[in-house]
Description:
The protein is an alpha/beta fold. It is built from eleven helices and six strands.
Amino acid sequence: MMRPEILNVIIIDNDSQLHASYKSYFERYDDFNLSGIYNNVEDALNEFESVRPDIIVLEVTLPKINGIEGIKLFRKKDAKVNIIMASTNNDFEIIKKAFKYGANGFLTKTVTRKRLYHALNSIKNEGAVIGNDIAKKIISMFQPKSYQSFSERENQIIDYLSQGATYKTIADKLFVTTSAINFHIQNIYLKLNVNSKSEALLKLQEIG
């Protein structure tokens, strides 16, 4: 039986307390080898040629050179190296920037042995990985918000208003008259205790 390919992995995380946890994780992996663990990007770059990692698990928040900037530097060393970002912060702007710079995956911490193995395996077999919490967050951004205090029709109108649609456009999309749309919008204003579209959108943003 052919032995599975063993991939070299390096960890870059300035939380030294986590280093022991990562080392213990890899003692139970058969197809991944921990070939280096570093506190910063600079040290990992200096040893890159000798270590030759297949996968880098890279913390976002690091001293001097942060993880996002580090992506570009590692890509210069090896354009094909796989990079999984790890962070306690799952802010969408950070996630978006990480993938824009060429990350192959993003995990929110704390990273357990099981989650790390799943991430490494996904990179090995599929070339990409993303945490479930981040996936849900991204999906929610593309789904219309639903406010419990409004009817289904009012929520539809709120969604179109948020996109900048006019009363006539909304009426055409929902196959009703503009007067019907106006009636629903007045009800929305009443529930929000506002008097204009701009006030309504601002308040919806606050409660959303």
